[in-house]
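Entry type: protein chain
Record version: 2
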Amino acid sequence: MPDDWILDVLEDLRAFARLNGLSAIEAEMERAITVARTELGTAPRPALLPLRRGP
């Protein structure tokens, strides 16, 4: 899935928060990861626009 990169970013932020004792941010990142997984898993793929030919 082309939008999986967002999960990597959120997981990195969660890890940073954990390593630096930022427990509230860590918890928020956990929630954000859950939401992102849900939305990315159910988000419709962008529709392809039909090619327009001629004037």
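Comment: The mean pLDDT is 84.
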